[in-house]
Structure prediction request, 71 residues.
Amino acid sequence: MNTRKSETARKWGLRIHLFFYVLSNVAQVVVWSLYDSGNHFWPVWSIVFWGIGLAFHFWSVYSPPRPNTEH
Prediction:
């Protein structure tokens, strides 16, 4: 059974992931700046760790395909 997604579907998935990453982190920074700007910049944790996940997603979409070793 071949369940590989098409290249277009993988790129759209990455775009959606990027959209929600930016949207939610901007919202967190706005909340931080309005209510807690005098304290620790806590949105950094979401930006960094979710960003790592996004980088892996980007890498999986744009890395060269692995050779097929099935016989």
User: Anything to note?
Assistant: The chain is about 70% helix and 0% strand.
